[in-house]
């Protein structure tokens, strides 16, 4: 993302740069992420508050998603509070619901 932000500056004629647009408008789910290495990359490039847990059913089962989330929990990439944001709190805020 940093490379795109830097290389787009000359041709982006906007009041907001790509990083600001990314941070304020892009929400990403964990669909397709099944190991902690890509998750580490996502966490380095996206605000934690904009990442939501999701399962890619029917391609991945809920059990597969739960296994990934447990790996994330024990990986040291996030603390318990950050984990809960990804697990459900960010989705609650984004969707305006309580579970």
Structural description of this entry:
The longest helix is centred in the C-terminal third of the chain and has 16 residues, at 80-95. The protein is mainly alpha-helical. β1, α3 and β2 form a beta-alpha-beta unit. The chain has a two-stranded parallel ribbon. The protein contains five helices and two strands.
Biggest β-sheet strands, sense, barrel: 2 strands, parallel
Instruction: Give the helix proportion (percent range).
Output: 55-70%
Strand order of the largest sheet: 1-2
Average pLDDT reading: 89
User: What is the element string, with H for helices and E for strands?
Assistant: HHEHEHH
Q: Classify the secondary structure makeup into a structural class.
A: mainly alpha
Percent of residues in β-strands: under 5%
**Span between N and C termini?**
33 Å
Point out poorly predicted stretches: none
What's the count of strands?
2
Shape: globular
Which oligomeric state applies? single chain
């Amino acid at each position: 993302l940093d490379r795109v932000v830097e290389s787009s500056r000359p041709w982006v004629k906007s009041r907001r740069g790509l990083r600001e647009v990314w941070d304020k408008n892009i929400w990403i789910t964990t669909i397709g992420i099944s190991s902690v290495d890509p998750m580490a990359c996502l966490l380095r490039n996206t605000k934690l508050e904009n990442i939501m847990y999701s399962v890619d059913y029917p391609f991945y089962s809920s059990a597969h998603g739960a296994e990934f989330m447990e790996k994330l929990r024990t990986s040291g990439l996030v603390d318990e509070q950050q984990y809960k944001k990804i697990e459900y709190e960010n989705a609650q805020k984004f969707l305006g619901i309580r579970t």
